[in-house]
Write a sequence for this structure.
């Protein structure tokens, strides 16, 4: 065995140890350090190996003794910890038996209130959605009636007009509903006016077609044998105060086969530009027809009827604004 020079080492301070049972081992540590620290054994020899094993046995004895002491002094502490945990579990279980019924009552009430809240929110959404749907139905009324007759549009407008708009039905959305109703009524009024105009135009065209068909049938019927064609009445018409062209009277006169003189009132706009044409002149017929359509506002079929009446001698004088 070869000893080495001592080197300063940190020594465990017995006075600072909190566990009194460890102090004897701590006191022996200084002696063991002096005896074995840094020693190199010649374990290749029998004696060296024996000395090394003896040194190991001595140091190990202190270490195992310390470990046994640790377990010994800790056992009560461990048991107390186990007792602490076990007894806490027992008491906790008893406390839960008291707490849980109360907790269940509280949670049941909280869940009931939550269900009531969710149900109230659902009913409120349904209420608002229904009102919104009713307002949207009012707004959509004109679009749903596109293509309907004036009578159908009028009936729908009457039904809409009779719908009450109040807070009892629309609640806080009453003003919005009233605005939607007013807008829909305005749109329906415009649609009714347009439908009437279309229906009147269609009726007028129907009557014109009937009149033209009747005229065509009359032309095809031959005159009885031995009769002379009716001579046109060439008596000059009595002068009347000049007035604006009434295109409806003009067309009716032409289609009915009556003699009529149409004039313009000089007091009316354009009256000072009135020219009088001798309608018996064939070279003027095309220009007269164009004026009847362009200036007098007649349909082409009406203008053709006037020209035909001119050629037949039923109209001899015509005043037209250029």
């Amino acid at each position: 065995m070869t000893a080495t020079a001592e080197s300063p080492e940190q020594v465990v301070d017995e006075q600072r140890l909190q566990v009194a049972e460890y102090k004897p081992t701590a006191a022996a540590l200084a002696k063991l350090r002096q005896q074995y620290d840094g020693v190199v054994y010649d374990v290749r020899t029998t004696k060296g190996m024996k000395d090394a094993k003896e040194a190991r046995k001595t140091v190990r004895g202190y270490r195992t003794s310390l470990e046994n002491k640790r377990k010994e002094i800790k056992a009560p502490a461990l048991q107390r910890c186990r007792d602490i945990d076990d007894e806490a579990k027992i008491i906790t279980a008893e406390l839960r038996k008291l707490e849980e019924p109360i907790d269940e009552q509280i949670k049941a009430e909280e869940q009931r209130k939550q269900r009531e809240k969710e149900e109230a929110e659902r009913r409120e959404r349904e209420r608002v959605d229904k009102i919104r749907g009713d307002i949207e139905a009012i707004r959509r009324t004109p679009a749903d009636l596109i293509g309907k007759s004036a009578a159908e549009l009028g009936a729908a407008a009457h039904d809409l007009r009779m719908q009450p708009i109040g807070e009892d039905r629309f609640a806080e959305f009453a003003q919005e509903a009233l605005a939607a109703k007013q807008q829909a009524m305005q749109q329906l009024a415009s649609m009714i006016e347009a439908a009437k105009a279309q229906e009147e135009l269609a009726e007028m065209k129907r009557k014109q077609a009937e009149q033209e068909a009747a005229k065509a049938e009359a032309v095809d019927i031959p005159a009885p044998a031995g009769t002379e064609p009716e001579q046109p009445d060439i008596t000059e018409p009595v002068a009347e105060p000049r007035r604006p062209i009434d295109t409806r009277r003009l067309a009716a006169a032409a289609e009915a086969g009556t003699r009529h003189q149409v004039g313009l009132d000089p007091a009316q706009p354009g009256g000072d530009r009135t020219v009088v044409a001798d309608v018996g002149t064939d070279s003027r017929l095309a220009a007269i027809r164009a004026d009847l359509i362009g200036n007098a506002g007649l349909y082409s079929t009406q203008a053709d009827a006037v020209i035909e009446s001119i050629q037949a001698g039923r109209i001899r004088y015509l005043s037209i604004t250029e």
